[in-house]
Structures are given as C-alpha cells and as structure tokens.
Amino acid sequence: MENQKNKILVVDDESDIREILKFNLETYGYLTDTASSAEEALTKPLSSFDLILLDVMMGEMSGFDLAEKLKKDPATAQIPIIFLTALSTENDTVEGLNLGADDYIPKPFSIRELTARVRAVLRRTDNQTQTKDAHIIQYEGLKVDLDRKIVYVDNQEVAFTKTEFELLTTLLGEKGRVFSRQELISRIWPKDVLVLDRTVDVNITRMRKKIGRYAQYLQTRLGYGYTFNA
C-alpha cells in the first residue's frame, strides 16, 4: 500500500464504478470522494482536490462540460483531470485532451492500469507545482504569495499588515508545529523592540477574522502557543 495523501474526486453516474474506484484508490492510500453527476460534483469543495476522475456521458451536464467549466475557473483550472469513458474514438480522445485533460482512459479499464496512470499524473503535476509554486505556501484556498507579499482567501486578495503576513507565513509554512509566543516574537519582530505576548494574541485574532473559514485551523494550544493544524 502506498502512503499517498493526495485527494481524488471520482465523478461517475454508475454506482458500481464509483464504489470500485473508491475502494481501490483508498486501498492505495488516496483520500477519495465521489459524486454521481457533474451537478453534484459542483457542490463539492473542488479546489481542495488534487485530481478528478471524470466520466463523460452523464445526465444533463456531461463530463466535457464540467471539465470546460473547471478549466475556466482560476480556482480549479490547475486540477488535473483524467477522463474515464466508453467514448473511445480518436475524435473523443482529442476533444478531451483539447479541454485540458491530463489523460483519457477508455472503459472498460483495469484497476492496475488506472492506478498507474493516476500515479503518473499526480507525480507530474506535483513536480510542476513544486517548480511553479516554489514561492507559494498554500492550504486549500488559503494561499500566501511570498514574492508578491499577498494573501489570497478562496481566490480573493485580502489585505494583511507586514506582521500578520509574516505570522501567517510562519504558521502555514510549518503546519502542525506549535510555536510559542516567544518563538514567534523572535522570528518576526526586530530584536531591539520590546514585544509583549499580548501583541502576538492581538495579531492572531485579527488574522482569524481575515482568513474566514480557515480560522478554525489557526488554533491555540493553551500553555504552549499557536499552530496551523489542518
């Protein structure tokens, strides 16, 4: 079993296929969610997924229609898509790839082949992301652009003071680590400035208000300090 933490969404109107794919992908260690239609998929937090396995022939909105919609939205445009479909002609394949799909697997397929292609796509996109976003720190829709000194919350730019920006960068950059107030003070404030613990608390409170739904992850460890615990 692989120790993967990538999150995958399976979108297919056939329940048997959804269940088989979910079971096998989770067996390989992937976090897996499912949707029975393109419309249901749109109710999911799509920007949180690392890969979408997408059937083409579904209900009112086809997989091609959903893919086109996702590629037009900056929040989801970079999510890799693998089409799973009974449409296997050359024209169908070309149409899928032209929509920005990363792979196109005709049905029926073997689980071994599918998981191999999933690994290949995730490996390729992970490498691209590391190269492209070497100066980006991100958790889902909460993103810190280190070069431009900008914070985005669900694709919306949010104004941060310099101190708030550096606090968020420190906590988000080492998710799960608990920082004491003194550690944060020594990292962020000038050495010749007297800073009280209460100053850290005030800045953390302001940050929580600014990051919206992600405030739940900016947690206090009583007696120890603060952590971004996703």
At the fourth level of CATH, the homologous superfamily of the largest domain is Response regulator
Question: Any idea how many domains?
Answer: 2
* Share of residues in helices: 40-55%
Write down the overall mean pLDDT.
87
Strand percent estimate: 15-25%
What are the defining features of this structure?
four-stranded antiparallel sheet, Rossmann fold, five-stranded parallel sheet, Arc Repressor Mutant, subunit A, alpha/beta, elongated, 11 strands, about 230 residues
Q: How would you portray this structure in words?
A:
The structure is a single chain. The protein is of the alpha/beta class. It has 2 domains: 7-132, Response regulator (Rossmann fold), CATH 3.40.50; 136-228, Winged helix-like DNA-binding domain superfamily/Winged helix DNA-binding domain (Arc Repressor Mutant, subunit A), CATH 1.10.10.10. 40% of the residues lie in helices and 20% in strands. The protein contains 8 helices and 11 strands. It has a 5-stranded parallel sheet, sandwiched between helices. It has a 4-stranded antiparallel sheet with strand order 6-7-8-9, covered by helices on one side. A two-stranded antiparallel ribbon has the order 10-11. α6 packs across α8 (197-210). The radius of gyration is 21 Å and the shape is elongated. The mean pLDDT is 87.
